[in-house]
Amino acid sequence: MTDQKSNIEIYDTTLRDGSQAEDVSFSVEDKVRITLKLDELGVHYIEGGWPGANPKDIEYFQVIKSTPLHHAKIVAFGSTRKAKNSAKDDPTLAALLSAETDIVTIFGKSWTLHVTEALETSLDTNLELIEDSIAFLRSKGRTVLYDAEHFFDGYKTDPDYALKTIEAATKAGAERVILCDTNGGTMPWEIREMVSMAREHCSVPLGIHAHNDAEMGVANSLVAVEAGVTHVQGTINGIGERCGNANLCSIMANLELKMGRTALGDGKLANLRAISHYVAEMANLLPNKRQPYVGDTAFAHKGGVHIHAVQKNPLTYEHVRPEQVGNQRRVLISDNSGRSAVFNKVETFGLDLPQDNPKVKELLESLKTLEYEGYQFEGAEGSFELLVRKALGTHTPSFELLGCRIIVEKRKANEEPISEATIMVKVGEVVEHTAAVGDGPVNALDHALRKALEHFYPQLKEVKLLDYKVRVLTGLRGTGSRVRVLIESGDHKEKWGTVGVSENIIEASWQALADSIEYKLMREKT
């Protein structure tokens, strides 16, 4: 059992610092929903935003007051007072109080460059801004956390002054001092040295707030913990301004699984992948499949030697158990796969395939031939399962294509083309003939196919095309080159990938679309 001294406070700033990332914009509803998920995960602090900075943050703090939380404390974020204002007349401090959170975080300047050039004030005045702001908020009954902005860059320039700023914060009543690598360019060995020095000049617990501009955000956060900080700030998936913030998903996993510290406790680390994907969805970002711990490929094995060894003992090629972070092991099927990979994959389909079944060899040969032709099944497991079931004779097609025609017509140079698809399919003994238009020939074909089949299979209305990728396999033949189409589809229960390959992009798309529909209907039957 981890002792109390090893506990680390997790401070999540996804809703504030994370929302400053390019292409990320949370609605108020998004922020509330993420708050509830973070509370469920077990983080200690959730920085909700900067009250007064924009209407969304103002509304968020109004809404969140009446939203019951079980674990996390909501924090309002702002800056020290302006030099021209007294603390009691400063709009920023007033907005912090209006948020009515018990805890507030304010940042102040630690780097002489920022004091003289950004604030355009004196070094002594900056110390007064820090002290006055914190003391005023404390007098209003708030717990104050102090972000020492640019602390590490400030220390490199003038260590004595950087230390004076955090001494001023503690003197005024800050209960935590967070050392910020705001520009994200500090190296781990520098972090260790400077945190150790700051501990000698700070009477309250220290924290770390790292950015990832040198790809050291996680490393710097962990080194800071080694050096004595007990409070770690970051964002889910590391989203944030420029190159992002320190990634809390990796930090929390490393703290608990590698360093023996308690970050979440109570087995809550098993929810890590779920929160990672939830925040990505709310941010309208594709999850990073190669993200450590929580990504789709974090525990994916492709090489035959690796797969064979992992089946014997997962420790051979996995540094932690995937279920510890809510992930799962995946076996990727490719031309590198051997018998072990095929048997492992077939087991996940719920099929009984004896070791001596001659179909295994046929499957391997078929797989290698198809991949040589350009098919890729590691991202198209739906197509692979159909391939297996067809080879074993356990799959009955749900429909048969009798023919299709696709017309793309451009009537004027400055008008968008019109795409229309006509399709004829056979379901049982019934022939269905339909037509549909769409945004491009593939979309028209998709609409026509669904229109033909939904009468027989209404469950297809649940299926959505989530992603569509085309890759030219070789450019030697120019526009006649072979292409691979990968489609990701999903319903309310799962997602699946399918693939098609041809010199004709419509044919490749048809193969992937047809497999997507067949996979859905096959899953409904099994």
Bin the strand percentage. Answer: 15-25%
Cα-atom radius of gyration: 29 Å
Number of E-type strands: 16
- SS class: alpha/beta
Classify the fold: give the CATH topology of the largest domain. Answer: TIM Barrel
Strand arrangement within the widest β-sheet reads 1-2-3-4-5-6-7-8
Query: How much is the average pLDDT?
Result: 91
CATH class of the largest domain: Alpha Beta
Q: What number of domains?
A: 4
Could you walk me through the main structural features you see in this protein, from its secondary elements to its overall organization?
There is one protein chain. By secondary structure, the protein is of the alpha/beta class. The protein folds into 4 domains: 8-282, Aldolase class I (TIM Barrel); 300-373, no CATH class; 374-393 and 463-526, Double Stranded RNA Binding Domain; 399-456, Double Stranded RNA Binding Domain (2-Layer Sandwich), CATH 3.30.160. The protein has 17 helices and 16 strands. The strands form 4 sheets. An 8-stranded parallel beta barrel has the order 1-2-3-4-5-6-7-8, surrounded by 9 helices. α1 links the parallel β1 and β2 (45-49). α8 packs parallel to α9 (217-226) and α15 crosses α17. The longest helix has 21 residues, at 505-525. The two termini are 44 Å apart.
